[in-house]
Protein 1
Amino acid sequence: MTVIFPNLGFPTRSRLIYYLILSRRGLNMCSFQNDALNFITNGRVTVRGLSQLGLIPKGQCVIPNQFFEGGWGIWLPMPNITLLPYFSVSVASGFNWTETVAFMEEKVKPNTFIDLGDNGVGKGNLEEDEAQSLYERETEIEQKLQANGLLYPKSIVDVIDLYVALGLAFKTEDLQGKWCLDMIIRPLCRIDEVLNN
């Protein structure tokens, strides 16, 4: 097994001694990295923050570890789920609001947005059964969103607005004073804490 020691600015020998001390104290690199990251970010880890620290390779996305455990995969509309990796990439890339919208519009596929106005599809084969299940899921989500005063997304701007309204993302200003977005990685609340109806 090959062990790779992250370079913390120490020479290789010093790094090895440092990690041996950590292991003797019952600590591992993962717990140390978490503690260091919490200290640097004051406990709030975001995609933009990780990107500014150089911890996200260019073109890569970061999704919160607690995304599915927190129920986000259950109650987030399908357009928001399928576009989340692209949203993360745009945040990590440092795009402003306009660039984020343009980038995500390039990623939209013909079936990204679901028309809930057409009473579902007829049943017949497996593909139609899957489409009907998706339609029913999205209809239930639309009702839950409406009960909480939110709209089901029909455009990229709606998708981004829903990320912000649910607290998964937030608006901030970059160094030039332009509006940009950031996405929460940790701590991520449960979606039931936001959608309570």
Protein 2
Amino acid sequence: MGSTTVPKPYAGGGAILARGGTAALPLIRSESVSGLLVTTDSGEHWRTVLAGGIAWKNLKRGPESLVLEILSDGRLLVGEEGGRYWLAGDHTNTAFRELKTPTTFTSLTVHGTTLYGMADATTATYDLVKGEGLYISRDGGRDWRRHQ
């Protein structure tokens, strides 16, 4: 087990996320996320993801709201809490597709290759949220089922 240094121009970026041979680092500029620095070969080669289907300009809430997860198969999930989400088509993480969710999720996370989305109130009120509950997708976000 060893370590790999992040390329110097990006060493001061956001928090790095790593799993298996994949690692991703958000590129932060002017208090917003403008892309990712990604490796899929344990740090041998790094590349930037500035497009690939992700609408970076639509991430309005800043780096603190960024959702960045790595599925067990090496694919990246990118998005914003309470906003839009994109999933990589394969482990190369070069092309992403936007997830169609059944409702607005206040959080989205992964376990293995299963996606878990939660719709809930963001404040301590007793008001119900439209579509409130836990949703599960086992096919990359194509179909969602509500957990009972």
Protein 3
Amino acid sequence: MNTLQGADEHDLREALRVLAAWLRTPSETPPAAKRSRFDRPEGTGQLPVPRCLTTALAPRACGLCNDPIKTGDEMGRFRRLKPPLDRAFIPMSWLCRHCLFDRREQPRRRDLIIRAFHHLLAGSAVGLNPKECAVLHTWLDNPAIRQKPAWQRDPLDATMVRLATSVAEDKPTTWIAYSTALTALHSMAAAETGRTDTRLL
């Protein structure tokens, strides 16, 4: 960002880090960020072009997945959405490269949990692309999960068929209803042990 117009607290905090680095060692001041060519996935896994991409001057955590960003790692910011979408989306702080580019093309279980959380807060369903459907189907295809009370009360067998069909047909978006998504989250939370995903669930 070349001016303070439109800068938010996260941009200003990063500007202060750059200034502090210069005050400590002027000779080691990082060069100004150059426009980057973004190597993004294509198709349903592609995310919007980030507003900026730079390298971290100090260790921090990703503003979305909370993974550590080490000094020298790439990090970036999302663009602000235009009205009326800006009312439903608050720009996050600095994100790791995975969250900027790859979380929809190479989704982890953690990415699915965060996506479900955000969608269920904003609406009544969770929209997943074929790769996300494949990860969720693999995760739910577990006898231990099928034995949990949440699944027994609201069986997800029809949802499993929908997920498999969406993967086979490469369907751009598959919508999972609010109640079904909650059943899946409760079932997975009860079955998981000793994983980062468990703490997040």
